[in-house]
Amino acid sequence: MQWTSLAAVALLAHGAAAQNMLRFACSQLVVDRVDPLVNPGIKYTPHLHQIVGGNSFNVSMDINSHDLVSKSSCTSCSFKEDFSNYWTAVMFFKARNGTYKRVPQVGNGGPQGKLENKGGLDVYYIPNGKVTAFKKGFRMLAGAADNTVDSKVTKANICHRCWTSKTDTPFVGGAPCSGSDTVGIPFANNCQMIRQTIIFPTCWDGVNLDSPDHKSHVAYGSGSGANGGGTCPSKFPVKLPQIMYEVMWDVSSFLADKSAWPTDGSNPFVYSMNLGGSAAHGDYVFGWKADTLQKAMDNNCNLNVDCPKAGITAQKAAQYNACTINQQAPEPVDGWLAAMPTGEMAIKA
C-alpha cells in the first residue's frame, strides 16, 4: 500500500497522470541534415536534426511505401518492437568569435528512474482513458522551426528547464512545462543542464494519416501539460496516446570559459535554425510492430520494462546504443564549426 502511494506521488510530481505509461530511452541513430517529413528527398536541408528510432530512416520516406517495421533491422529505442522515428533540432553553443559547437545530450532521470541514452532523447506514451494507437503511416509535427516569438508558443506544450546540477536525480521541480519553465532557452550562470520538453497533440480527425503542414489532422485536447491530454474537439474525435519528448542538453562544459560567451549578454544557446527556444519542434513517424502499441496501452504497460501482455520487450542499452546509421548528408557536426550548418556543407573552424 505504501509503495503504491509513493509511486502515484512520484508520477504526479513528474507531471504525468497517476497511471501507467511507457517511458523509455532512445539513443542517437544519426545527426543529419535530412528531414523526410518537411523536406522529403532533399539533402542538406535548412537545419540539422538529431534522429532516433528505426534504422530504415532515410531522406525520402514515402507514406504509401515506406514500412518502417519491415525495412528496419534494428531500433535505437528501448523497445525492440518500436521502429518509429523521432527527431528534434540540435542545440548549439554560439561563441563570441562566431563559431559553433554542438551541445551533447545525456540520459534523463526523474521519479521513475534513470534512463540510459547514448545521445538521443526520452519518449513517453501517456494514455488518458481509452486511447486509439496511431495507424500505419501516421506522422505529425509539433512546434514551428521558424517561430521567433515566445508568446506564440504554448508553454504547456513546449518548454525548457534549467538544471542547476550535473545530475537530475533526485528530480527537482514540478510537472513538465510548469512553474519556472520557459519557452526560451535558459542560460543563467548556474544552468548545468537544460531539459527540453515537447508535447504532441492527442486528438486525431480519424481519417488523415498526415496533412500538408503535418499538423492540421491533429489537435490538442482541453487539458494541458503531460496529463495524457483532455477532452477532444468534435472535429478531432479520436483520442491518441500523448507523445512527449524530453531531451537533456548538457551545457556544463560551456560554463568554465566565460571568455567564449557573447559580449553583449545575449543567449549563446540556439537551435540549429540559429533561433531560440520558440523555434523548438519535434517530428514523429509511427512505426510500432503490428498492434503492439495498442496492446501496450490497453494492458497498462509501464515505463521501460518487458510487458508480455502486449508482446513488447525492452532491449539492453548495449543493443539499442549499437543501432546507428551513416549520415545521408555527410558533414562534420562535432567540434567547433566555422558557421551554423544551414546552407552548404558544414566546415570545421
Automatic annotation (TrEMBL):
<feature type="signal peptide">
    <location>
        <begin position="1"/>
        <end position="18"/>
    </location>
</feature>
<keyword id="KW-0732">Signal</keyword>
<protein>
    <recommendedName>
        <fullName>DUF1996 domain-containing protein</fullName>
    </recommendedName>
</protein>
<dbReference type="InterPro" id="IPR018535">
    <property type="entry name" value="DUF1996"/>
</dbReference>
<feature type="domain" description="DUF1996">
    <location>
        <begin position="35"/>
        <end position="288"/>
    </location>
</feature>
<dbReference type="Pfam" id="PF09362">
    <property type="entry name" value="DUF1996"/>
</dbReference>
